Amino acid sequence: MIVTGTVKKTNKGIAETEIARSTACGDSCASCGLCPGMNMKVNADNAIGAREGDTVLLSMSDKKVLGAAFLVYVIPVIMLIIGYIAGNALFKTESGAIGIGFALMVLSFAAIAVIDRKVRRHYVPKIIKIVTSRSDA
């Protein structure tokens, strides 16, 4: 995955970069109004020495992006379903099934937070090219 961003700050080989948020509605956000803001800040590896104000290309492997999305979006749903089935078998009531389902989903979010702290450095995008430098403008 390659995206374009603008470097806002740099510090010790890391650049805080603002990128356009991609949308699920096909970039017609005015039609649904659900997108709170169209830009997000990302810390990126700045091995090529981009400076504040530079427009850059950032790269991250599609495999890592999809893996992170799976971890954050799919695992909690799977845990909710497993918890619901287990709770239903254990308690034989709807409320027990829902309670166990939500408990496992919450535990999965806690586990994801712990995993995130351990693997975060492997999911940092890299600046691969300076498109326009602030000195070019």
Can you put this structure into words, describing what you see?
The longest helix is centred in the middle third of the chain and has 30 residues, at 62-91. This protein has one domain. It has three helices and five strands, in the order ββαββααβ. It starts with a strand and ends in a 5-residue tail after the last strand. α2 packs antiparallel against α3. The protein has a five-stranded antiparallel beta sheet, with no helix packed on it. The protein is of the alpha+beta class and 137 residues long. A hairpin with a 2-residue loop joins β1 (2-11) and β2.
Give keywords.
137 residues, alpha+beta, 3 helices, elongated
**Lateral arrangement of strands in the main beta sheet:** 3-2-1-4-5
Number of helices: 3
Calculate Rg over CA atoms. Answer: 20 Å
Q: What is the 3D form?
A: elongated
Distance between the termini: 27 Å
Unreliable spans are: none
> What share of the residues lie within helices?
40-55%
